[in-house]
Amino acid sequence: DIQLTQSPSSLSASVGDRVTITCRASQTINTYLNWYRQKPGKAPKVLIYSASSLQSGVPSRFSGSGSGTYFILTISGLQPDDFGTYYCHQTYGPPYSFGQGTELEIK
Amino acid sequence: QVQLVQSGSELKKPGASVKISCKASGYTFTTYGINWVRQVPGQGLEWIGSINTNTRNPTYAQGFKGRFVFSLDTSVSTAYLQISSLKAADTALYFCAREFADRVSGSIRYWFDPWGQGTLVTVSS
After folding, report:
1. CB-side exposure of B14: number of CA atoms within 13 Å?
2. One digit per residue, pLDDT tens: chain A, 107 residues?
3. C-alpha distance from B109 to closest chain A C-alpha (Å)
4. Do B6 and B19 meet the contact criterion of CB atoms below 8 Å apart?
């Protein structure tokens, strides 16, 4: 089974900062990698699919890159509403799997 | 609009069973698969498995084979997750999610969109 490891597990950043979250896969997954954000008490919502494609309606400050085993989610110009937990997710499987999550706090 | 609406919270005793529903609207139900995801309070997302809404073929993650069963009622665009022999460790928020598929860079890619609002299952004596 494919394991996804996110880094960092948590971070605190200020409005306007550039934030990067990484996701490493235990084996190559091409670009079958998606990113979601989950806010407390809510369901996750997709931000990026297929490693770098921006989901419709998601602000352009979100971007994704990577392929193979290493992926990056970047938020350029952090906004107050960007708090939450971010998850990477691979659909190279099944079985599908998620990273352990990165909790983002706005200072 | 496309949405998945799940059934309400459940409180069950150990050993009992529970059946959660996930009703789809806004699209043709049999076009996309339905996935189920578990989230233990305070923890991350765990993929339970998926069901092909066209062939009814289920796929279960290794740790969820046996007590977890997916089913469908396509006449009402609804997917179900039944969990039997409930344990305290099954206490969690259970999400359904549509497995959206589209062609990206020449191949079919999959992602989960939208998700249901989640159903909290509490197992306690």
Report:
1. 5
2. 999 999 999 999 999 999 999 999 999 999 999 999 999 999 999 999 999 999 999 999 999 999 999 999 999 999 999 999 999 999 998 999 999 999 999 99
3. 7
4. no
**Which amino acid belongs to residue A36?**
Y
Instruction: Count CB neighbours of B50 within 10 A.
Output: 27
Q: What is the C-alpha to C-alpha distance for residues B54 and A80, in angstroms, rounded to an integer?
A: 42
Give the tokens for residue A21.
């979250």
Residue A88: its chain B contacts at CB < 8 A?
none
The label of the residue with tokens 């150990």 reads B14
Residue A95 touches chain B, beta carbons under 8 Å: yes
* pLDDT number for residue A31: 94
Q: What is the pLDDT of residue B112?
A: 98
Give the torsion through C-alpha atoms of B89, A42, A59, A94, to 10 deg: 30
Which of B109, B119, B120 would best serve as a mutation to test chain A binding (most A beta carbons within 10 A)?
B109
Which residue's entry shows tokens 């549509």?
B98
**Which amino acid makes up residue A80?**
P
Chain B interface, best mutation among A65, A92, A96, A98, by max B CB count within 10 A: A96
Residue type, B9: S
Using the Cβ of A64 and the Cβ atoms of chain B, whether some distance falls under 8 Å is answered with: no
What amino acid occupies position B120?
A: L
Residue type, position A15, single letter:
V
- Residue B59 · residue B109 · CB < 8 Å: no
> Which residue, A37, A42, A39, is CA-closest to A89?
A37
